[in-house]
Structures are given as C-alpha cells and as structure tokens.
Amino acid sequence: MHLWARYLILVLGLFTGLHYVLRLTQDSYSQATSFENIALHLKGSTKEAPGAQSEPETYHHLNVNSSFALLAKRRANATFVILARNSDLNGTVQSVYQIEERFNKKHRYPYVFLNDEPFTEEFKQRISLMTSSLTEFGVIPSQHWNQPDWIDEEKAKKFRDKLVEQDIIYGGSVSYRNMCRFNSGFFFKQELMQKYRWYWRIEPDVNFHCDIDFDPFTFMEDNNKVYGFTITPYEFEATIPSLWGHVQDFMKQHPEYIAQDNAMGFMSNDGGEHYNLCHFWSNFEIADMEFWRAPAYSAFFNYLDSTGGFYYERWGDAPVHSLAAAMFAKKDEIHFFNEIGYGHHPFTHCPRDENVYTKGRCNCDRQQSFDYHGYSCMIHWDKLTGRV
C-alpha cells in the first residue's frame, strides 16, 4: 500500500473516531450532526419541536466550513435566550448581529426566542438571517405569563397608581410585572429550554463592545461558577418595600439552603439587618439553570410568589435572582465578566484595563463605564471578593 494511502486511512480513522467521541460526550454536537438535523439543513426547511405546547418553530442554516470546525471545538450544553415582542424586531436583530460578530460566529451556540404571542414570519426570517446557528421560537403559556387570578387587582392597582405618582419607571405597567415574574420563576421551565443546562440572557437593543475570545459557558463549567454578571446597580427602593423582610423570613425558615461562604455581605452592609439595594443587572446574565431548578431556588421563588409581591409591589427579577445567588451560592461561584464589554441603556460596562481593552478591540469609552459610577455597587463587590 502506498504511503499516502496509509496516511489517508489514518486521518479518516482519527476524524471518524473524534466524530463518535463528540457525539457521545457533547449533546449540542450530537444534535447538530444528527441525520435529521443535517437533512433539515440541506432542505433549508423549518421544523417544529416535538411535543412543544406552543408549537415552536426551529430554523436551520448550514455553514459547511463552520460545521466541520465544530468537530474540534468543545461546547457546553448551552443556549442564548431572548425574550422579545414582535415590535422588538429591529432591536433584536441588532443584538443578535452584535453577539454573532463579537462571539458566536466562532461557536454557533443556539438561540431560544420567547414571546407571549406567536412570532411573525418576518421576525423569524430576519432573525434567522443573522446567524448560522439553530434558532427556536416559542410561545409562553398564559399561566406562566399573565397576572394570576388570585391577585387582588384592586390592591395591586393602588400600588401601581402610587408608583405612577412617584414617576417610577414601569410603575403602572402590568406587562412589566408579568415579565419580571416570568424571568424570576418560569423562563427555565419552558419546553425549549429543557434540553439545555447553561443560558446567556440577551435583550433587544443591547450592545457588545468587545471581541470575546474565550467561551464564557465552558469557563463557567470548568471553574464551578453558577452565575455571571457585568453590571451591578442599586435597585429603586420604592419598588421593593417588603422584599427584604420576606428574604429574612425565608432564611429563618430554611437555614439548610443558605450556603457557607455566601455573598450576602454584598447585599447588606450591617450583617443582614437591612438590604443595601445592590443587585446584579439581569438583562445580562450567564448562569446554570440547574441552580434555578434546584430545591433551594424553587422554594424561594414559590414563597415570594405566594406573597403577591410581583404585583402588589414591583419586584424585579434582577433583585430576586441576585438575592438567591447571594444566599444559595458560594461567593466564588459568582463571576464578574470584566472582559465582556456590554451596554444596556443607560449603563455600560467597558473594560478599564488597557490590555483587555486592546485585545478585545473594544469600541466603548472607558471613561463612561458604569463600574465605579456613584450608582454602581461594584465597589461593594470588590470589597467582598478582595479585588481591592
């Protein structure tokens, strides 16, 4: 046998072996290279996710070069998740385009888009043109979105009117409260999310200012992290007057859930007597859904939900997620992604370090970074974690 033929057989054998190892060990690769998925790519067709309550649609686009590149690239069992309305189309296209250019065109992580009503064909088609990744579109069940029947609407309206008088943003909005409750307790229960462990939350009209030359998902996985953030402001106290009291009650009732070496020192400056209003801004978060699906968070959300505070006040998912992460995770399981330049009006995180800024080809103004703005809690995080 000629020497070149032997080398060819060796290369084909290594390629085939790697293919089967990845199919056995990497769920995302197995899904991407399944016969069904390849057939769908070649047809350029759409596919309904089997058994989905809301009949979500999946769009596939085949990029041969990037598909073969995935053979040698490890990926986590992860997805981007975007909650959007049809009217958010232009802003969603912007966000997807930017994360693709800055990160995902090299990794091809899938996307899950969620809406409380069916997405239009225009929405699905324009989004699918932005990426060669798997894109899935689902409708949120009404019981996960709408204000529950047991809420006393007269009581809820009185508080909404009070916030409107105080000119508090979204103070009078029921749909905003629906969103906050959904993001607090239901997004990770959606059928399209069940096959994934990790998620990266993205919203319409956000900006990614720097190239991301590492994989945040595998970083989280390899370093035993459960929650990642970029921006940490104070919450509006008027929107959560009773939340801290309920958190204190829950901790007293369930001391078994409170982690050793937790991050509650970030949330309180006086040993837990008062809440300092610090929280992680959840419009950007990369996290482990097993953390939200675990007994501790399930009990916590169910307790908070039973009080009606999402509607009788205006509890945001950001303080709810943040307080849970601070209670149930060790502080070194929470990670600040300094390298990821990110902006959501009106705040921007821009890496201050010259090497990080240059390496990432960042286009943000470091002088405008929110990190140590007077309304930022970053200094509290630095003190807790020893960064200063």
Quick description:
The protein has 388 residues and is α/β, with parallel strands linked by helices. It is built from 18 helices and twelve strands.
Give Rg in angstroms.
22 Å
Query: Average pLDDT across residues?
Result: 88
Q: What is the first-to-last residue Cα distance?
A: 66 Å
Strand order of the largest sheet: 1-2-5-4-3-6-9-8-10
- Tell me the helix content: 40-55%
Largest sheet geometry: 9 strands, mixed
Write the layout of secondary structure elements.
Layout: H1 3-25, H2 27-32, H3 35-43, E1 46-48, E2 57-59, H4 64-69, E3 78-83, H5 89-102, E4 111-115, H6 121-128, E5 135-139, H7 142-145, H8 153-165, H9 174-185, E6 198-202, E7 207-208, H10 216-222, E8 227-229, H11 243-253, H12 264-267, E9 285-288, H13 289-293, H14 295-307, H15 309-312, H16 317-328, E10 334-336, E11 342-344, E12 347-349, H17 354-359, H18 378-385
Helix pairs in contact: 9-16
Sum up the structure in keywords.
3-stranded antiparallel sheet; 388 residues; alpha/beta; 9-stranded mixed sheet
